[in-house]
Amino acid sequence: MKIDENTTPLLTVDHLKQYFKVSGSFTVKAVEDVSFKIYPGETYGLVGESGSGKSTIGRSIIRLYDPTAGEIRFNGLDISGKMSKADSQTLRIQMQMIFQDPMASLNPRKKVEDIIGEGLDIHHKCKNKEERDEMVKAILAKVGLAPEHATRYPHQFSGGQRQRIGIARALIMNPKLIIADEPTTALDVTVQAQILNLLKKIHRDMGSSILFISHDLNVIKEVCQKVVVMYKGVIVERGDAKEVLKHPK
Questions:
Q1: What global pTM score does this model have?
Q2: Which of 37, 73, 133, 139 has a CA positioned 20 to 30 A from the CA of residue 176?
Q3: For the purposes of burial, counting CB atoms within 10 Å of the CB of 154, is it exposed (0-12), middle (13-18) or buried (19 or more)?
Q4: pLDDT by residue (tens digit) across 49-58?
């Protein structure tokens, strides 16, 4: 998808800092002065070694962490400080996250239909149970799962199938931005390829922007248009994904 950088960015991160106080005398500076923009329809890569702060950035953007400093603007809203209930609800609908470990991020006591449909229930997106069931079955089909999978539990699936459930949970809200936090790391190579192809198809079909977090350069080259390279909490390089990976500075 061709990105028009004359349009208003969907997400703007300005001078983001994320610190974690460990003790009275020691603070971990996980993210230090990070800035970037993601435009509508863009797939943006965040790459770096383990511990470079890339997953922390994703969690700060979606407000699983409260940012220490800096500004985050999403679709015209300032989401970096204290948010109103309405703004928080808008954020939860329009931004979704796919987590690295599909088993840890799925409630083992809930059936798949309830895991995927939870967002619909919370935000009252369906008039009745029949409409909810239809939406859940439709999203299962989109991610390559069968309708009968809706009544099973997470432990009854393979790792790749569980990741598809996590993707379905994110997609059912029809978000403007998906944060994919190393969604293929816990999977074997053949299943990784299937999940990557699925994410590319979703990007084409739905037009959602994706922030793709990974330490795998081949994965970033495969799916991303732009990329920033992280090292010890700071950005050390940025630009067109293919150019950065072919001719790093």
A1: 0.90
A2: 133
A3: buried
A4: 988 999 999 9
